[in-house]
Write a structure and sequence with these properties.
The complex is a heterodimer of chains A (about 900) and B (about 160). The N and C termini of chain A lie far apart (about 85 Å). Chain A has a six-stranded mixed sheet with strand order 10-14-15-13-12-11. In chain A, strands 27-19-20-30-29-28 form a six-stranded mixed sheet. A six-stranded mixed sheet of chain A has the order 21-25-26-24-23-22. Chain A is an alpha+beta fold. In chain A, about 40% of the residues lie in helices and about 25% in strands. Chain A contains 31 helices and 35 strands. The longest helix of chain B has 10 residues, at about 145-155. The model of chain B is unreliable at about 1-15 (pLDDT under 50). Chain B has helices spanning about 70-75, 125-130, 145-155; strands spanning about 20-25, 25-30, 35-40, 55-60, 65-70, 85-90, 100, 105-110, 115, 130-135, 140-145. Chain B has a six-stranded mixed sheet. A five-stranded mixed sheet of chain B has the order 3-6-7-5-4. Chain B starts with 17 loop residues before the first strand and ends with a helix. Classes of the chains: A alpha+beta (about 900), B mainly beta (about 160).
Chain lengths: ~900, ~160
């Protein structure tokens, strides 16, 4: 079945090429030195030869093979192109054509052996071989141009005759009888032309709509009837033009049985290929785009997935491996599934490989779930094949597959169970140009939301409905089947008129962006439509909220919303990521992010502390506040919790303890010690990369940084606590705790790191530069040094070097603090590892603490007591 | 959608020195005629929320979506009276057509190279950035608009 398709394609392609070849041969006679022409002819013959060999047409292959040799001699300049040679080649071309016709009508090669032609070709080939004298009848090519090559004339067919060569044709009887061969039933059309047609049809649809609107108001029956007819024809035309760009996915699949068969044979495997849904249609551009990824995936399945027969039998599976391909439409997308019942992917093996290749660090891999580990194969430079075979496994594979699919707006998902097989699911849009979209209204403007991102619509009515949107510290959320869904108001995101609240009906469009969901409140919901996506001009490219624009039925332009862009802009996505993280592991890129609690106090509109330091957020009625030795306290969980009014520390005047009721308190704790800080209002919890830091001069503040695109002041927790009194509860015993030298030039970063360490009960000595750190190392007993790589006065490495020499603190373990989280660059990591005992991201609290404690305890345990004692003695 | 045709008797002779002219707040501008795709009456527009100020909206030009730039705002001039409707001067750019919203469309003029001069130093900075030079015509000055600059600055904005 599939072979028939391939042969058909081969026939169409070859007859096109041959038609061109006739013309090119004639041209070549006139310009024998034209390398480009010669190359083109050579290529055509070569292609036919190759395909014939592939399809098993041995006779054709033999003839074209000799022809190719002949041409290659000409191409290499070993012989000149004589009219005799041209005739011979044209004769060969005719023979090929006849054979092709035979194949088309009978499915096989003709009975005539064409042996004499082959022999003549071969002889010509040998005559022209290097070292042999030229044939006497060879004449300079220039003269040859004048000579009419008689054989060529005889052979030209009307179908392939070009305008240039309207030659009287000599009959090849059977061919003349047949009118429409396969080659005649199709034509190749430039896709650009189809695009243009598509545009024009779009315009026609708009004009038709206007006419229909107009005709609805008219009495004239003839006019109305004509409009209806126009309507019908336009619709059909639109469908037809759209169809011109659609091709069944079978076009790609047809080549696969052969690929699988050959692969199976060469690997000694038995693979049975099943295909389901080959008729599923896709836009031409998408078909082109998935061709290679699909072939690659299938190759991968055969090579890595399906096991050798004896292994399969041993594992109680049939010796025949099964590879099945499925394609189907679903939700405006095409789903393609590639399922094998092979060995599956072993997550441990993948992890081991990732470690070997230095893509990840052991602790990162440890945290990965099975699913995440399997998805590692999409990492660039990854291949688990133990052996690099010539089929696959050169490390340029799955990442390319993923990128190519994503480039056309698709997604790749992978599920695998060790021993049972692997399923790859690809989802791709039907077409790049036309997508279904939901039309919504907001602030009197129309917007289109791509259906792909749409999960469901929620309609809340009346007072009761309004109450269903609740707020967590000002952030609206909606309880959707027990889960909190963050809500954004489209009006607010786009700064359009009209308030999001106080309406009778609230329409929530529940959207999916990547792996997260959020609700978008709009003013109104219209219908869904097929829309033609048009790009925005470069002037608007910078706006992340829009994916493009489209033209609506009334001829007006409507913007297409970019769901991810809207989500990020409104902030709902960055916040919801926090909750997502509990079940999925911390992504690598998140590691240099910080989760911050934002709050307000007096004139300080935006203050922040790392959320990791915060124990609880509490609200107390004013009456609960009591006084103990002149300080504000509350009874809290059976303890007396000292309260520090932040406004007092920061010297801002506006906030008075007595004004607010209830009061907002941030509780910090360490073990059973607690302290509360009174603030005006909790604003938000954000996760962001902290950038653009600046040190502060105000006591109580560490400095400022940009968080969520706004300048935010960071609280100096120690200063605040120093000001506000003591911790509640028993002071944690400092036994077992460590003295850490934090050598970091940035006051801000130093402060944060100090926080982390102190909150964990460690003692901290600060060093602002290499010299400063060395001085303090002389004066203080330090167990562990945490040093920033970019420490002022020479850098972290320099400090270590001088520390080892000068102070004799040779054995004191050193943790390097890097700006980005851990691994990053492999080379850098290796360099760091040589000098330092460990390295960690500055703001990765957990990892840093663990690292410090581990080094300290290793030190305490002491491989060599004397050495440790010595070190301490010297450093004192 | 009425298209104004540009007619000039000397068209053939001075093809490269012809300017399609327009007014923005009494300033007289010209764009090389070959750069101009067409001129349209005021079209209904779709606003683009959050877009740079100078972008008035999007228009549907026979199925093509064209960004409209308000020349008054682009040149930092006083805003147009609400009663006045601007005209669309659609210019070709590498990135497709872009419409410039201007007050009034003038004739297509042929100019002589001799009358050309660079923009005087004392013109305002905003204006000087947007023009390549000046043609001294009888009774008035024709400012040659640097369309590339006009369009390019948008991307930065």
């Amino acid at each position: 079945m599939e072979d028939q398709e391939i042969i058909k394609e081969f026939l169409i392609e070859s007859s096109e090429n041959l038609a061109r070849l006739d013309q090119e041969m004639v041209e070549l006679e006139q310009r024998p030195k034209d390398g480009g022409l010669l190359a083109s002819i050579f290529r055509t013959i070569h292609t036919i030869k190759g395909t014939c060999g592939f399809l098993g047409f041995g006779k054709l292959e033999k003839i074209t093979h000799v022809g190719e040799n002949l041409l290659s001699q000409v191409r290499n300049g070993e012989r000149d192109l004589t009219p005799h040679l041209v005739s011979l080649i044209l004769e060969m071309v005719d023979a090929i054509k006849l054979e092709l016709q035979a194949i088309e009508s009978t499915g096989g090669e003709s009975d005539s052996s064409r042996e004499d032609l082959r022999i003549r070709l071969e002889r010509a080939c040998q005559q022209g071989a290097p070292g042999e004298a030229s044939q006497p009848e060879e004449v300079p090519a220039a003269k040859a141009a004048a000579v009419e090559p008689p054989v060529a004339v005889k052979a030209l067919e009307p179908a392939s005759a070009t305008a240039e060569a309207p030659v009287p044709r000599a009959a090849e009887g059977e061919a003349a009888a047949r009118h429409s061969s396969v080659a005649d039933s199709t034509i190749r059309v430039d896709v650009g032309l189809l695009d243009k047609l598509m545009n024009l049809v779009g315009e026609l649809v708009l004009a038709r709509n206007q006419i229909l609107q107009f005709s609805a108001r008219q009495e004239d029956a003839t006019f109305n009837a004509t409009s209806q007819r126009l309507n019908l024809i336009t619709t059909q035309l639109q469908e037809g033009v759209m169809k011109t760009r659609m091709q069944p996915i079978g076009m790609v699949w047809n080549k696969l049985p052969r690929v699988v068969r050959d692969l199976a044979t060469s690997c000694g495997k038995q693979i049975q290929l099943e295909m389901d849904g080959a008729e599923t249609e896709l836009d031409k551009s998408i078909i082109e785009a998935i061709k290679d990824p699909l072939t690659h995936l299938v190759r991968n399945c055969c090579d890595h997935g399906i096991e050798l027969p004896d292994i399969r039998v041993r594992n109680h599976k049939p010796a025949h491996g099964r590879l099945s391909l499925r394609a189907f439409h679903e939700g405006g997308q095409v789903n393609i599934e590639i399922i094998d019942d092979g060995a599956g992917i072993d997550p441990e093996k993948v992890k081991k490989k990732a470690l070997q290749k230095g893509l990840f660090r052991p602790e990162q891999l440890e945290r990965m779930s099975e699913r995440e580990a399997i998805h590692l194969i999409f990492q660039p430079g990854f291949s688990t094949a133990e052996q690099v075979t010539n089929i696959s496994g050169r490390g340029v594979g799955m990442d390319v597959v993923k990128t190519n699919i994503e480039k056309i707006g698709g997604t790749v998902d992978l599920a695998s169970r060790a021993g049972q097989g692997t399923t790859v699911k690809i989802k791709i849009p039907l077409t790049l140009a036309i997508i279904p979209g939901l039309v919504v209204m907001s602030g009197n403007e129309r917007f289109v939301i791509p259906q792909v991102s749409l999960l469901e619509l929620v309609r809340l009515e009346g007072e009761q409905g309004r109450r269903m949107i609740e707020r967590i510290h000002g952030t609206p959320v909606y309880r959707r089947r027990g889960n909190l869904l963050p809500i954004a108001y489209l009006n607010e995101v786009l700064r359009l008129p009209g308030s999001g609240e106080g309406r009778d009906v609230i329409n929530i469009v529940v959207l999916q962006a990547e792996d997260r969901q959020f609700g978008l409140v709009v003013d109104g919901i219209h219908d869904t439509q097929e829309i033609v996506v048009k790009p925005l001009g470069k002037q608007l490219k910078g706006l992340s909220c829009y994916a493009g624009a489209t033209i609506m039925g009334d001829g007006k332009v409507a913007l297409i919303l970019d769901v991810l862009g809207i989500g990020l802009k409104s902030g709902v996505l960055s916040e919801s990521r926090e909750s997502q993280r509990t079940d999925s592991q911390v992504r690598d890129s998140d590691r240099d992010r910080q989760t911050l609690l934002l709050f307000r106090s007096g004139e300080y509109e935006r203050l922040a502390v790392p959320l990791s330091l915060v124990a609880r957020l509490e609200e107390f009625p004013r009456t609960k506040i009591e006084r103990a030795s002149g300080r504000a306290v509350v009874q809290y969980r059976g303890q007396i919790l000292p309260l520090v009014p932040l406004a007092g520390v920061l010297g801002s005047h506006s906030m008075d303890l007595d004004e607010r009721d209830p009061v907002q308190v941030i509780v910090f704790s360490d073990g059973d010690r607690r302290i509360g800080i009174l603030v005006d209002q909790i604003v938000d919890i954000v996760e962001d990369v902290v950038v653009a830091r600046q040190n502060a001069s105000t006591p109580g503040l560490l400095g400022s940084a940009v968080v969520g695109e706004k300048v935010t002041d960071f609280l100096d927790l120690r200063a605040v606590i120093d000001h506000g009194g003591e911790w509640s509860g028993n002071d944690r015993s400092s036994a077992g705790k460590v003295t850490v030298m934090v050598a970091e030039s940035s006051h801000f970063a130093r402060g944060l790191v100090r926080h982390y360490l102190e909150m964990a009960g460690h003692r901290v000595v600060e060093g602002a530069s290499v010299q400063d750190a060395l001085d303090k190392l002389q004066r203080n007993r330090v167990d562990v040094v945490a040093v920033s790589l970019d420490l002022a006065g020479g850098g972290g490495a320099q400090l270590v070097e001088r520390m080892r020499k000068v102070s004799g603190a040779g054995r004191t373990p050193v943790v390097a603090l890097t700006d980005e989280a851990g691994g990053g660059n492999d080379n850098a990591a290796a360099a760091v590892a040589r000098v330092f005992d460990d390295f960690q991201g500055k703001f990765d609290r957990e990892a840093m603490l663990r690292s410090v404690e581990r080094l300290a305890s290793a030190l305490a345990a002491g491989e060599s007591l004397t050495e440790t004692g010595l070190t301490r003695g010297v450093v004192r | 959608m009425q298209n104004h045709a540009f007619v000039d008797s000397n068209a053939a002779e001075h093809a490269s020195h012809q300017y399609a002219t327009f007014f923005v707040n009494d300033l007289f501008f010209g764009i090389e005629v070959l750069q101009v795709q067409e001129v349209l009456r005021y079209q209904e527009m779709t606003k683009v929320p959050l877009s740079p100020q100078v972008i008035e909206g999007l228009i549907n030009l026979r199925g093509q979506i064209v960004t409209a730039i308000d020349m008054r705002r682009r040149l930092k001039l006083a805003p147009r009276d609400s009663s006045e409707t601007p005209m669309n001067m659609v210019v070709r750019s590498e990135d497709g057509a872009v419409s410039l919203l201007v007050d009034e469309i003038g004739d297509v003029l042929s100019v002589r190279r001799d009358d050309y001069e660079h923009a005087p130093e004392n013109t305002s900075r905003e204006l000087r950035e947007m023009i390549t030079g000046v043609y001294k015509l009888e009774g008035k000055l024709l400012l040659v608009l640097d369309t590339e600059r006009v369009l390019q600055a948008q991307a930065e904005a």
